[in-house]
Amino acid sequence: MNYDYIIVGAGSAGCVTANRLVTAHGKRVLVLEEGALDKGMLLKMPAGVFKMLFEGSPFIKRYTSDAQPALGGRAVSVPQGAVVGGSSSINAMAYVRGSRFDYDRWNDAVGGKGWGWDDLLPYFKRQEGNQRFDNDAHGGDGPLKVSDSRYVVNAADLFVRTMQKMGLPFTADFNAGALDGVGYMQTTTYRGERCSAATAFLHPIINRPELTLISKAKVTRLLFEGDRVVGVEYSVHGSLHQAYAAAEVILTAGVYATPRLLMLSGIGPAAHLAEHGIPVRVDLPVLSR
């Protein structure tokens, strides 16, 4: 099959990218997701995250770190969403952008390429549908819904008041650039339900003819013509398929699966690829070692 763009991974970045390519540019887009469709009550229920994380879920894939010297030799379990929407479908829904200081420091580190707080704020606002704020720092009409918790336990109120008595200032908004203070976090929920990246960006275009979404599709390698990536090979229920992109193949498979796919396709540290008998196309330090 032929498309304009192929997106590998239907997590937060993949859902947003697909939405923009379809709605703003009318492109034919194939989205391949290794996990399942985001169907199930626990995915919608905000409290369902705790049952999924602590009791197991087919929507979660767990990685295990190497033994960490700073943790007394313990290994750390790293859960990721294995479902359309990625980790935005299984996380604790805390809406925290980060601090202005960090964005500006990152921007300085890359030579002022447009990653500062003021550069990114218009995009934060455009995507945000905040149910309480609609001001210089927030948007109220965007697709990603953000709201206050409907229920606050008494212990949380006691904690917030106690911290104020100890001198910590009350903060009504942790997403305006500063994280100092104590207060109540907002969440990516709307009317008592989770608002994942899939809910916000993919569901509204799911019936558009330009979009093709295939779940339980494991991408096995990138396809090349010369030095150019032109498509992907993927398996669904054990059957291999190939798809081709006229414009680009976009990898949004997460911080672990994306470099793994690159290396399986011959793009990575040459010495490491040689250890596994993978022919080297590009000697590139995909992962720091």
Beta content: 15-25%
Could you say which structural class the secondary elements and strand pairing correspond to?
Answer: alpha/beta
Number of helices: 9
In helices, the fraction of residues equals: 25-40%
What ranges have pLDDT less than 50 throughout 5 or more consecutive residues?
A: none
Radius of gyration from CA coordinates: 21 Å
Average predicted local confidence, pLDDT: 95
Order of helices and strands: EHEHHEEHHEEHEEHEEEEHEHE
Taking the sheet with the most strands, its summary is:
6 strands, mixed
Distance between the first and last residues' Cα: 37 Å
Using DSSP, what is the number of strands?
A: 14
If strands are numbered along the chain, what order do they take across the biggest sheet? 9-2-1-12-11-10
Shape: globular
Describe the protein's architecture and organization.
The chain contains nine helices and 14 strands. The two termini are 37 Å apart. The longest helix has 12 residues. It is globular and about 65 Å long. The model has no long low-confidence stretch (mean pLDDT 95). It is of the alpha/beta class and 289 residues long.
Q: What keyword list fits this structure?
A:
globular; 289 residues; two-stranded antiparallel ribbon; single chain
Please summarize what this structure is:
This protein has 289 residues and is α/β, with parallel strands linked by helices. It has 9 helices and 14 strands.
Topology (SSEs and partners):
Blueprint lengths: L1 E7 L3 H12 L5 E4 L8 H4 L3 H8 L4 E5 L12 E5 L18 H10 L7 H11 E3 L13 E3 L7 H12 L23 E2 L2 E2 L2 H6 L8 E4 L2 E9 L2 E9 L2 E13 L2 H11 L2 E2 L1 H6 L6 E2 L6
Parallel strand pairs: 1-2, 1-12, 2-9, 5-6, 13-14
Antiparallel strand pairs: 3-4, 7-8, 10-11, 11-12
